[in-house]
Amino acid sequence: KQEVTQIPAALSVPEGENLVLNCSFTDSAIYNLQWFRQDPGKGLTSLLLIQSSQREQTSGRLNASLDKSSGRSTLYIAASQPGDSATYLCAMDNGGNMLTFGGGTRLMVKP
Amino acid sequence: NAGVMQNPRHLVRRRGQEARLRCSPMKGHSHVYWYRQLPEEGLKFMVYLQKENIIDESGMPKERFSAEFPKEGPSILRIQQVVRGDSAAYFCASSTGDGTEAFFGQGTRLTVV
What we know:
The structure holds 2 protein chains of 2 kinds.
Chain A: E1 4-7, E2 10-14, E3 19-25, E4 32-38, E5 44-51, E6 56-59, E7 62-67, E8 72-77, E9 86-93, E10 99-101, E11 105-110
Parallel strand pairs in A: 2-11
Antiparallel strand pairs in A: 1-3, 3-8, 4-5, 4-9, 6-7, 7-8, 9-10, 9-11
Chain B: E1 5-7, E2 10-13, E3 19-24, E4 31-37, E5 43-50, E6 53-56, E7 65-68, E8 75-79, E9 88-95, E10 103-104, E11 108-112
Parallel strand pairs in B: 2-11
Antiparallel strand pairs in B: 1-3, 3-8, 4-5, 4-9, 5-6, 7-8, 9-10, 9-11
């Protein structure tokens, strides 16, 4: 059974800092890994999807990496802004698009 | 393409009533997934459906919960005799089922009073 853990659970940083969110998983037999953003009381916005055969994906200030051998993924946010404040979720797809989510990292970027 | 549409966005039910949550997948998607997010907890998979079939319901509570995805119309998640512990955000996602990503709706927030 896949288990997904995100560390830290909460993070507060000043505006402009580069930061790294961590995600670890127990079952490396994944089809893909997805990072989502969730604002309070809102739905999920897909940020990046990394296929099993890929090592990383980039979109603007976001870069996500995948290391299946160590069971880890990181989401790197460059030059953080107050608008980046949200909960960030990683999710593993072990097949059939049924996702196993981590508990999330609540990010606060202070002006 | 309007994306995955869920309604209602907010639903209030008294204990013992029934709750019906609807999900219309993206155009061209025939695979639907329901997830539940309890307060202060992560999202948990509930059920995976294709048109007229339940593919995987390993995350569904054994009692009071059911789901369907008929040939015509939206997918329905039905909760009978709701209790306060059912209060949560229920999210629906859809995909083409060929290994590409699933897209999520905005969720239905159920409050049981």
